[in-house]
């Protein structure tokens, strides 16, 4: 069987970095889960594009008289949240549909709920947080209309992202519960899978041997075999 070569993200050949993940929907995902998995992938792409558009919106914000902090934070969110969202919630759901792993489903639910909260905060748009949300955009219309119009684009995209994230979370949760999944099943799967891992087994063996060796090497009290009699000088 040929070894699978990592193919994602697809990087240009002149970059001295190689792809970190292998991704092939048709080869990895069962046909009944293919559509939902691709939709979640498109949602991740929408999130990445929204962060890029938000950077442009914050640039217009800066040009229109806003602070430079928003532009700096927008750049940070772009380079931070794009790879983190892929690793933290898309890869777990990709693996969950690929292997029918309850633990991966739970990892997805935990991280994607955080993604949903972040999307809502981004849509709200607290000034100074590096996002062109509703509060920041509406309040800037009184300062510079042109910049505010540009800021309105990522604001709408953040709102759409929040709505789609809620719908996606509801759909995956409904599917998971309908297929008989539960937290106890994920916990059991993790426990069983962890003890099957050779690294975990080796660590457990080393810990047991270390404990036994430590018990054997403890200093023991030495008792003399010669009796010691106490004599009194008084007769």
Automatic annotation (TrEMBL):
The keyword Kinase does not apply. It is found in: Cell membrane; Cytoplasmic vesicle, Secretory vesicle, Synaptic vesicle membrane; Golgi apparatus, trans-Golgi network membrane; Membrane. GO terms for biological process: exocytosis; protein transport. One of its GO terms (cellular component) is recycling endosome membrane. It comes from the Eukaryota. Its main location: membrane. Keywords: Cell membrane, Cytoplasmic vesicle, Endosome, Exocytosis, Golgi apparatus, Membrane, Protein transport, Synapse, Transmembrane, Transmembrane helix, Transport. It is a multi-pass membrane protein. The chain crosses the membrane at residues 41-64, 70-90, 102-125, 145-169. PANTHER family: SECRETORY CARRIER-ASSOCIATED MEMBRANE PROTEIN 5, SECRETORY CARRIER-ASSOCIATED MEMBRANE PROTEIN SCAMP. Interacts (via C-terminal part) with SYT1 and SYT2; interaction with synaptotagmins making a link with the SNARE molecules. Interacts with SLC9A7. Belongs to the SCAMP family. SCAMP5 subfamily. This is Secretory carrier-associated membrane protein. It comes from Sus scrofa (Pig). The gene is SCAMP5.
């Amino acid at each position: 069987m040929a070894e699978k070569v990592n193919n994602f993200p697809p990087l240009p050949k002149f970059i001295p970095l190689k792809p970190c993940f292998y991704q092939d929907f048709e080869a990895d995902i069962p046909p009944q889960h293919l559509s939902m998995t691709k939709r979640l992938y498109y949602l991740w792409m929408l999130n990445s594009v929204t962060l890029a558009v938000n950077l442009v919106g914050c640039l217009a914000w800066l040009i229109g008289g806003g602070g430079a902090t928003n532009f700096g934070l927008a750049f940070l969110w772009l380079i931070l949240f794009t790879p983190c969202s892929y690793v933290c919630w898309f890869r777990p759901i990709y693996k969950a549909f690929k292997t029918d792993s309850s633990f991966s489903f739970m990892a997805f639910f935990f991280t994607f709920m955080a993604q949903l909260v972040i999307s809502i905060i981004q849509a709200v748009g607290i000034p100074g947080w590096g996002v062109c949300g509703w509060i920041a955009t509406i309040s800037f219309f009184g300062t510079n209309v042109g910049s505010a119009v540009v800021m309105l684009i990522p604001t709408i995209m953040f709102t759409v992202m929040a709505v789609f994230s809620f719908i996606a979370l509801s759909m995956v949760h409904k599917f998971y519960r309908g297929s008989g999944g539960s937290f106890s099943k994920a916990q059991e799967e993790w426990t069983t899978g962890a003890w099957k891992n050779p690294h975990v087994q080796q660590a457990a063996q080393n810990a047991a041997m270390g404990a036994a060796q430590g018990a054997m090497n403890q200093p023991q009290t030495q008792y003399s075999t010669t009796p010691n009699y106490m004599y009194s000088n008084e007769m």
